[in-house]
Write a structure and sequence with these properties.
1 helix, about 80 residues, 3 strands, three-stranded antiparallel β-sheet
């Protein structure tokens, strides 16, 4: 499964885990707000229970594919980690 359901974000974008709300990404700039580590990657949790460190410089259209469910397109994991 390729759908991201959890990301680490910068503090100003954070939502308390107990709050009944979610981080809302901007489809025009899906990387805005992501917390990048010193290696330029961000932590993403996926719907299948896996977690991956992904490159912070992903093309916006690829990041949108990861954020949206059931698009049916394959992901080349070697190019985004």
């Amino acid at each position: 499964m390729n759908t991201v359901v959890l990301v680490q974000v910068e503090p100003q974008w954070a939502v308390p885990w107990t709050a009944p709300q979610d981080y809302r990404f901007d489809p025009r700039d899906p990387a805005r707000g992501l917390q990048l580590g010193s290696d330029g990657r961000f932590l993403a949790g996926f719907a299948d229970g896996s977690a991956r460190l992904l490159r912070g410089d992903l093309r916006p259209e690829l990041l949108l594919r990861l954020f949206r469910k059931s698009d049916g397109q394959r992901i080349d994991w070697k190019t985004i980690q």
